[in-house]
Amino acid sequence: MAESVRETYLAGIRPNAVPIVVALDRAIAEASPGLDVRIYYRMLAYAVDGDFHRFICCIDASGKVVRLRFLFGTRLADPRGLLRAGASHLASIDIASPDSVDATYVAGLVTEAVARLDEFRAEYGATRSRAKTG
After folding, report:
1. Looking at domain 2-133, which of 3.40.47.10, 3.40.50.1170, 3.90.1150.200, 2.60.120.40 is its CATH number?
2. Which in 50, 58, 88, 113 has the greatest CB count within 10 A?
């Protein structure tokens, strides 16, 4: 099933983005082969136990560059300073070519995000509860 999801996603993006997405997908799958994959808000998303509401990462090939996004990216170690903060905890890396995909770096980010997911989920739940009550 995951292969058909990947094929469907690749069929719907611009041709010059395909090699970048393939390289990122390979790095993510090698780092954490058990992740669930689906198209989520027009992005190729990766999650643990089907929890796409709190996904690990996603690949967004909708713009001029391909973006690798981590839902809790602002909380990840980023020694090279590649993650660009976005809304809430989201952080992204812009990737312009398949040659600029650093599979080892991507794998490290994915591995850390998976390892710390319970921590992030607990914090996210606490943040959402505080926002609703006060």
Report:
1. 3.90.1150.200
2. 58
